[in-house]
Amino acid sequence: MHTAQDIHQDHVTLTQEAMRAFRGTTVLGYDVLRSSYGFFPHFLVEVSREAVDLKVAALREYHTYAERYYFSEDVIRSTAIRHGALAERDFAEGFDIIRIVGGFGCIPA
C-alpha cells in the first residue's frame, strides 16, 4: 500500500482500508514521491537492472502521467539507485513496514 507517511487523502483512505481488509497479513508501504513526506525505507529488496527497466517500461504505459516529474525515467532510476545504495546493492525497491506477520521457526507449534 501507500506509505503511512503519505498525506494525499485518497492514499490515506486506501492504506487505512488495506489495514482493515488484510488483517493478519504483512503490509508494506511504498513511497509516492509527490505526496509522502518523511518517507524512509526500512525494508529494502534488491532488484536487477532488468527489473528497473521493466518498471520504467510499465510506467510509460500510464500516458496520462507522462508529463509528471515523478514518472520521469530519471526519477524512477535515481530512486532505485538510492534505495540500492542504502542496501549496498546496485538497485533496490524501498518500503516502510506497516505490519509484518511472521513466525519463529525455533518455537514449537
Provide the gyration radius in Å.
16 Å
Q: Count of helical segments?
A: 3
Strand order of the largest sheet: 1-3-2
Helix content: 25-40%
Mean pLDDT: 92
Count of folded domains: 1
SSE ordering: HEEHHE
How much of the sequence lies in strands comes to 5-15%
Helix and strand content put the structural class at alpha+beta
Strand element count: 3
What profile does the largest beta sheet have? 3 strands, antiparallel
Account of the 3D structure:
- This protein is an alpha+beta fold and 109 residues long.
- It has one domain.
- The protein is built from three helices and three strands, in the order H-E-E-H-H-E.
- A three-stranded antiparallel sheet has the order 1-3-2.
- Helix 2 packs antiparallel against helix 3.
- The chain is globular.
- The model has no long low-confidence stretch (mean pLDDT 92).
Distinctive features:
single chain, 109 residues, alpha+beta, 3-stranded antiparallel beta sheet, globular
Could you provide a short overview of the structure?
By secondary structure, the protein is an alpha+beta fold. The protein has one domain (9-99). Helices cover 36% and strands 15% of the residues.
